[in-house]
Amino acid sequence: MLQVQAIAQEDFQKASAYILRCKDMLMRLPQMTEYLHSLCYNFGIETYKNNKYEESSFWLSQSYDIGKMDKNSVEPEMLAKVLRLLATAYLDWDDRAYYDKALHAINLANKEHLSPAGLFLRMKILLKGETPNEELHEAIMEILHLDVSLDFCLKVAKLLMDHERESVGFNFLKIICEHFKSSENIGKAWLLHIDMLLQRKEELLAKGKIEEIIIGHQTGRQLTTELVGCLHNILWKKAARSFEVQNYADALHWYYYSLRLYASDQTDLDLAKLQRNMASCYLHLEQFDKAKEAVTEAERCDPTNIFTQFYVFKIAVLEGSSDRALQAITALENILTTTEQEENDVLTDRGSAVMVLTLAAQFALENELQIVAGKALESWNLAVQCDKDPVTMREFFILSYKLSQFCPSDQVILIAQKTCLLMAAAVDLEQGRRASTTFEQVMCNLQRKHKNSVCCLVCFPSLMQFFLILFRESFPPF
Fold first, then answer.
1. Domain spans of the chain?
2. Could you tell me which InterPro entries the record lists for this protein (predicted)?
3. Between 316 and which of 81, 130, 325, 458 could a Cys-Cys bridge form, CB atoms 3.0 to 4.6 Å apart?
4. Cβ contacts of residue 454 below 8 Å, gap of 6+?
5. Residue 414 contacts residue 383 (beta carbons within 8 Å)
6. How far apart are CA 470 and CA 478, in angstroms?
């Protein structure tokens, strides 16, 4: 009790003195061994959690020593657990100064009871030091001899890669693939190998592995659905990086690998997204026929997607087909005004559709298809029809204003622009008045202030002219 009280008061000197006295008494009271061992272990955990590594290492060392005093009281598995935490405490305390102590502790732990956790921690400690590759190779072979799982081996391989031991890591991956070749989850090892190769810009080797997987997938050795999704993710990320640096041909190469994983009659939303991504690359490369084919496939898989219809519109504009372009715009508006939200994530918010309509209008004008003025009017009409949905109404007014900016500037257009902005600002004011929380009120006010600043720029000349006329009528010249 005195010892417990001392530790509670964070008096480490008193507590450590008490525990040493109790330890000396165990020869006369062996039945207290397990209790005292557990007490020290719990103190070791508590001090470790509080980042008191020096105190933690003391308590854990005492826990191990006490446990060894009576082999019948404490199981080897428990002693190994104590030593693993002790090794971890040394690492977190100072992995350079206490490297040898940490390694000694984990070696003792593995002698007491060999386990995957102990082997992994030993590998982690070895990687903290300047351990030769030969010694690391011996350590990984020891892991395989323990008959551990595939997931555990992949975890070790990734650890080696993260510590820039590529030669050992890649060699281990090859050994893993051979060792677990009959496993139904061997695809995990293949994908990790590909991912590691791509991260290190070993693209030729990665492409070879991808070809092997795709051919195997098409000829009977199929990946699980989960692993197919993981491979798609790897390929799309690589394609996206190439797209960002405007290397569209390379992006297409990776997207094509992804396309080959789909069955010829397969239809799903991800395939539609893949075809849209490929169409975008083809458009940048000015390969319009291939872009049209990709968009046609995307429309087959997901015709109600707003981005699919946008690409249909772009292709129609590039072909000079006003009728087809207008059909696509109509489809876009139908998607936007539908009251039922589709489950395929076509539209997460109305702002996306407004943005797409704006881009479509700009693209049409750039290609000399004069369909924008009519669409601006339609957007206005849609806004009026959305009186039960103020947010959508505001967005349509803003869209109408943006579309009108592409039209020739005259008095009629200017009046329409002013009206759109005033109506949008009025909607924001009403939304702010009805907001139930302070946060919503602040957001509405920010939106209102932004629109008001634009509104003032557009409307200010007319207001000045109005006040000038009023002044002249009120104060006629002498």
1. 226-260+268-302
2. Spo22/ZIP4/TEX11, TEX11, TPR-like_helical_dom_sf, TPR_rpt
3. 325
4. 421
5. no
6. 16
Q: Considering all CA atoms of the chain, what is the largest pairwise distance in Å, rounded to the nearest integer? A: 122
Calculate helix-pair angle for 33-49, 76-94, nearest 10 degrees: 30
Closest alpha carbon to 82 in 93, 70, 66: 66
Class of domain 226-260+268-302 as given by CATH = mainly alpha
Angle of helix 411-434 relative to helix 438-474, nearest 10 degrees, comes to 140
Distance CA 331, CA 327 (A): 6
Length of the chain equals 478
CA dihedral 90, 92, 97, 100 (to 10 degrees): 40
N- to C-terminal Cα distance for the chain? 105
Collapsing DSSP states into helix, strand and coil, what is residue 219?
Answer: coil
Question: What DSSP string describes 131-199?
Answer: --HHHHHHHHHHHHHTT--HHHHHHHHHHHHHTT-HHHHHHHHHHHHHHTTTSTTTHHHHHHHHHHHHH
> Along the 478 residues of the chain, how does pLDDT read in single tens digits?
455 545 645 777 877 777 777 777 766 677 777 888 888 899 899 899 989 999 999 999 999 988 888 777 889 999 999 999 999 999 999 878 899 999 999 999 999 999 999 999 999 999 988 889 998 998 888 888 888 899 999 999 999 999 989 899 999 999 998 888 888 889 999 999 999 999 988 999 999 999 999 998 888 777 888 899 999 999 999 999 999 999 999 999 999 999 998 875 566 788 999 999 999 999 999 998 999 999 999 988 888 888 888 888 888 888 877 778 778 777 777 776 664 444 444 444 455 555 666 666 666 656 665 554 455 446 545 545 655 667 666 776 776 677 666 665 666 567 667 777 877 777 777 766 666 555 455 444 445 444 444 444 444 444 334 333 333 444 444 3
DSSP for 231-299, written as a single string: HHHHHHHHHHHHHHTT-HHHHHHHHHHHHHTS-TT---HHHHHHHHHHHHHHHHTT-HHHHHHHHHHHH
Q: Residue 41, Cα to own-chain centre: how many angstroms?
A: 39
Buried/exposed 237-273: b ≥16 CB within 10 Å, e otherwise = ebbeebbeeeebebbbbbbebbbebbeeeeeebebbb
